[in-house]
Design goal:
131 residues; 6-stranded antiparallel sheet; OB fold (Dihydrolipoamide Acetyltransferase, E2P); single chain; mainly beta
Length: 131
């Protein structure tokens, strides 16, 4: 997960996504990616982006490794949809892009927990998260 800090906007509270025309914001990783930390996430899957609406991303779940079933799911991907935030390690998600995605609650985590699809990494996730 990335920690969001809004700079230069006294009215913005913690975790508020800044207006793209407003001041810049930065983010840094709260937890670094490892297979052990991946195992603590609520969900992990191989998915393709179907649509993006602001920070909300709808994925088609191609293979669920943990916590989700196949089908479509809409999750919040703060800083990974081309807004005015540096997401500290998350890819810039695009429609039709295929990704390995992990997170908690309804939030996609950055910092290596979400990355461009790679078959060998997917195999590692599958093995690490298998029952």
């Amino acid at each position: 997960v990335a920690l969001l800090a809004s700079i230069g906007s006294p009215g913005a509270g913690p975790g508020v996504v800044p207006d793209p025309s407003g001041p810049p914001a930065i983010a840094s990783c709260v937890e670094q990616f490892s297979l052990e930390s991946l195992a603590r996430r609520d969900f992990a899957f191989d998915g393709t982006v179907v649509s993006i609406n602001g920070e909300n991303v709808t994925f088609r779940v191609d293979e669920a490794f943990r916590g989700l079933a196949a089908g479509d799911v809409t999750l919040t991907a703060t800083g990974m949809t081309g807004t005015a935030i540096s997401s500290a390690g998350g890819p810039n998600l695009v429609v039709s892009g295929r990704y390995l995605v992990a997170g908690s609650d309804r939030f996609v985590w950055a910092c290596g927990f979400t990355q461009d699809y790679d078959a060998s990494v997917a195999a590692t996730w599958r093995q690490a998260l298998g029952d």
